Amino acid sequence: MDFKALANKYQTPLYVYDLDYMSSQYEKLKLAFKGRKSILAYAVKANSNLSVIKHFADLGSGADCVSIGEVRRAILAGVAPYKILFSGVGKKDVEIREAIELDILYINVESEAELGRVELIAKELGKISRISIRVNPNIDPKTHPYISTGLHDNKFGVEISTAKRMYIKAKNSEYLDPVGIHFHIGSQLTELKPIYEASEIVADMLRSLQAIDIELKFFDIGGGLGIKYDDETTIEPYDYAQAILGTLKGLDITVICEPGRFLTANAGYFLTKVLYEKQNGAKRFTVVDGAMNDLLRPSLYNAFHKIEVISDAKSAFSKADVVGPVCESGDFLAKDCELPLLEHNDLLVVHSAGAYGFGMGSNYNTRGRSAEVAIENGQDRLIRQRESFEDLIALEKDLVK
Ligand code: LLP
């Protein structure tokens, strides 16, 4: 990929996504589940650019959404409503209402109180709402605590005993149709055992529901498949699928998987230009034009992203913190990164930026968010314009007294 040409054409900071890589990741995972009915429901939160969602929709993907905004994006991008799931612990009434009216595949319910709201709203609408219940299997996924979700300490899902009560209530309701069961123990998972254990617990639950005549159609395993940011050992899609399918022996059920990071992370690059080198005592800083408002993961999770240097610099390498212009000491893209002394306008390419990159961006410090560019079949095209100052003040400028 000619990063230099892209940076010159579209300016920096800039997100670049390789759509062909996304396709190959999608096909790899889809293939792993062959022999079973399966739906890959792309987790829109990982990268919610309309062109990215459309790319997956064109491949046959569904969408896993966590707000009605994401549901609307998915529909706008061409995802069939019958392949859309709506998850999340805090759905508002208006969101539930719209999801039911749109006739999406199902709402993933995360509490008894929410089930009550869904039933009430379906009744008001005179409709039957398809639901699935998110079970919290109390399994430690061995990942970063901020992205671990399958322990009782986390806010997600309900305990098995509660879930059972909820299924019985749903089964007996005129307005609810329980069609699925869901779990998601965390993100960036690199160990198979916790996934297998969680799947076993939830499959057992499924069997015990069958015993009381509650027949579900969908076994929703969430997302979470990890990727290589550095030299992590990752799980092969085939092994992942086998581990899960192994727990479903004898069950006629469609598997739904909600991958986000696996499909998009390593398809994405964040391009940023060097502004200055500076030295504070013994500490070297390379100041660039991209910041935590563009790519938050290093600041929020201390996450590592590989940095590639595009420069003619020939000096010796030394350790530098790569920092942005935002007024926070926590504004960094990398710490103690071995870099040659860089010149103004040299280019840094931050890897693995296709998931939870742009989407977690903000306008902090009145910085417009970056442009986004897609590469497909060797051709580049703009898929989101760079935000201008006018965009940033549009919703307030007429309200100043
Ligand atoms: N399904 C559910 C219910 C989820 O909560 C998530 C992610 C996914 C699927 C997709 O997970 P993935 O396949 O991408 O691991 N901002 C964090 C990640 C937060 C993940 C939230 N839930 C990060 O940058 O690492």
Give a quick summary of the entry.
With 401 residues, this protein is an alpha/beta fold.
Question: How would you describe what is shown here?
Answer:
- The protein has 2 domains: 3-14 and 266-384, Lyase, Ornithine Decarboxylase, Chain A, domain 1; 87-259, TIM Barrel (Alpha-Beta Barrel).
- The chain is built from 12 helices and 17 strands.
- The strands form 2 sheets. Strands 1, 10, 11, 12, 13, 14, 15, 16 and 17 form a 9-stranded mixed beta sheet that branches. An 8-stranded parallel barrel has the order 2-3-4-5-6-7-8-9, surrounded by 7 helices.
- The longest helix has 20 residues, at 192-211.
- Helix 2 packs parallel to helix 9 (237-246).
- A hairpin with a 2-residue loop joins strand 10 (268-280) and strand 11 (283-288).
- It has helices at 3-10, 19-32, 50-58, 68-76, 93-102, 112-125, 160-171, 192-211, 237-246, 261-264, 297-301, 389-393; strands at residues 14-18, 38-43, 62-65, 84-86, 106-109, 129-134, 176-182, 218-220, 254-257, 268-280, 283-288, 307-310, 318-323, 332-339, 347-350, 371-376, 379-384.
- The protein has 401 residues and is α/β, with parallel strands linked by helices.
- It is globular and about 70 Å long.
- The chain binds ligand LLP.
- Residues 43, 46, 64, 87, 147, 184, 187-188, 222-225, 258-262, 297, 355-356 line the site of ligand LLP.
- Ligand LLP is lined by residues 43, 46, 64, 87, 147, 184, 187-188, 222-225, 258-262, 297, 355-356.
